[in-house]
Structure to design on (162 residues):
């Protein structure tokens, strides 16, 4: 069963004055997907998918902490932006996953990966990786590790476009 809760940034505690809204399904991960380009109000949908298996060698399993919606992301969904969206197979179905920027936390490190550990914050150095998803496998060579502390989730999630 899915549920929603209100959390304070970075602390995870419940609060009486909501600062961030979060929705989670403990058994599944989710992504905002589309199967064809078009009007976002008609083509975007949320799809649940099984949790990721362990990362392949040279890769990281990441969980997105914050993924903003940039006007260019909407243009990608519409098919009027020159960038190609990320295509994935989720639960046996070929879909596009939107999102070009976001900050993620490393949740598992694949064999042969050095310089990353569980808990590190990363952004993608590769465009159109499908950041509108709960989790993703990212090749370590495409991950940019952010320095610990000093950055808010908002700053970190949008650092690539600043």
């Amino acid at each position: 069963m899915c549920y929603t809760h209100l959390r304070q940034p970075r602390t995870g505690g419940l609060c009486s004055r909501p600062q961030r809204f979060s929705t989670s399904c403990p058994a599944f991960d989710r992504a905002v997907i589309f199967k064809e380009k078009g009007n976002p109000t008609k083509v975007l949908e949320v799809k649940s998918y099984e949790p990721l298996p362990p990362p392949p060698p040279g890769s990281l399993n990441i969980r997105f902490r914050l993924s903003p919606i940039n006007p260019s992301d909407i243009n990608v969904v519409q098919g009027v932006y020159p960038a190609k969206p990320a295509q994935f197979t989720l639960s046996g179905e070929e879909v596009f996953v939107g999102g070009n920027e976001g900050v993620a936390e490393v949740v598992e490190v694949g064999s042969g990966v050095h310089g990353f550990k569980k808990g590190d914050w990363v952004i993608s150095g590769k465009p159109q990786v499908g950041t509108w998803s709960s989790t993703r496998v990212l090749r370590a060579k495409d991950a940019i590790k952010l320095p610990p502390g000093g950055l808010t989730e908002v700053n970190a999630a949008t650092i690539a476009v600043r």
User: Anything to note?
Assistant: Residues 1 and 15 are 22 Å apart (CA to CA). The mean pLDDT is 86.
